[in-house]
């Protein structure tokens, strides 16, 4: 070998399998006339190249500068110089499986523009083929059974490639080179149409038949990428009502799929930001404000000013969206909160009596994965449900962890596998109330540990001993660690931002098991994961009937009013009294007096429930969180998607007196302007407590004076923001901490989040919010892993109790 020959061995880690990485390397090596090989290993992609020194250097530089396929992501790149070997060509070698290190798995990705073009081209051999894909698009996580990502390790192993597909697959210059799910009409999966009894209907063209059925108002179960959807014409009121009744989903908003961005424009108020999120290859459902004259049935999203809207993401969806309807309701195929159906037989069984037809196919789904849902606040995504398109991409951690499983919360459950410096948060699993969801929970733990070759050494779970996720954890023969629910919330947000020093953690949430056997949910913590000190919270109120109160929000209104005013308030002309009746209300009084199933709670979600029903907006929830959501919908604020929306003129925080910890705050002017709010009192002590008596007195006063409900709702929201700001300022004064971390289900409320961020920033805080995982209980498993990570990394960290007071 001559002197100018250079050989590099390069190891790349990240999302590098199933995304066209090796073919890209092949083409790049060919361009620079380099020889050697590339191979997928469980350690990552290994590239061995040699050739002229300047060419080898340029090749390396290209990779370092990010010349990589669109769906890939480099997390680490290491290289070393080697003695030249004398390769005579460049080859892509078969994958090798080794024990030990992990390779990342790409999430499922929407069809790319090249494939879409072929799908619509009558002279292409895959014209209208519903499973067209390439190295840049198609199913990934949902079909992978184990790593490395090769066809034989996916559910595509059932299909033998025809000579045409095979030649594409083996041609390094073809855009389907090593596209594992590559297929065509001749050799790949096919669709079939079945009636409600599961009988296959002989039809020349199943997709055309489905379009006609949908146009006629039928409910059709359609198998997609991570599971089945139930589809109906979104402009057909009758069909939607029928679907709601059968699915037992009375009022919860339904997502709609539209053919393209132009149709989306007709339905919703689009801007540059939400358009960007709609078009992302992850294709999430994006919550966007509806247009007033939207040509869809009002039954799609009643009492809601947002519409969950998404674009087609598989070729099959594109073909179905050609039908004569403005949009399709495409809701997860399940009953109520059960997991989404994925297997053909399972679907026929579980959707019996719901679906009127089935459009199935014979490509198996290995991992079920619901659609992801995001909302947008200040140009950033606010993830509501993290699933398809995102899972199982890891959240990178600043510390390494031993292999650990975190079992998450009870509702909106996700699990998380911690391994090395990565936290693999699972797709949304759902509420562990049903056996089907519990099975899905077990399946997901097994799949994550298998696919990432993990051997868990410890399990982290919620403190609540009654949660199935906690019970499963302690039944395993492994060491366990429990983490308080709201501390896990704050820890999850800190994990996203690699924070590990002391923070002020604000966890405004529904309910969670507290350290003192009461039910927490409006927590201010000081400290760091594993070492949090509870520094403040809202006042407690009884929760009459326990968990029932979450579904009957009027109970919380009665509980707060009874706590602060006894039965005096019954004299006022309130819709609540009229609707519920004073007899029923007095029954609740006696529940509270006799302490019958009335646990104490300070959950902020329950406070929102109380105010929503006090205003006569919602006395009984048809779905979890409905009362608070409808209270938010009353707000007549302007666009808060944009960073500099007109909603939030930045005003200086107003602190009453020199010491912000005053017992009685002045009641500001109750006008409809951005910063007015109701009164509240901060009761001083080692742990600050916010009394809400003045808040409720003010609200009753405004109701009696017949003030517009939307103004009362605004003033209430502003009060919560003002409370958060005042407490944070107070804690900063006490502890000298300026980082504020926001988490908890209440921060799904766009106004609350946006306004809190504005006010805290105006007061000089560094504010951290969730971006990668939801602020709701979907983040708990990440927080659990991060708490363990911080504890293990934290030798010598100071105790928050020793902070200067
Ligand atoms: Zn493609
Ligand atoms: Zn083929
Ligand atoms: Zn929570």
From TrEMBL:
Q: Name one GO molecular function term.
A: zinc ion binding
GO BP annotations, alphabetical order: protein maturation
- Record domain YrdC-like: where: 204-389
Alphabetized, the UniProt keywords read: Hydrolase, Ligase, Metal-binding, Transferase, Zinc, Zinc-finger
EC code(s) of this entry? 6.2.-.-
| The organism's place on the tree of life at top rank | Bacteria
Q: Which residues form the signal peptide?
A: none
List, alphabetically, the Pfam families matched: Acylphosphatase, HypF_C, HypF_C_2, Sua5_yciO_yrdC, zf-HYPF
Q: Which intervals hold domain Acylphosphatase-like? A: 7-94
Q: What is this protein called?
A: Carbamoyltransferase
What organism is the protein native to?
Candidatus Fischerbacteria bacterium RBG_13_37_8
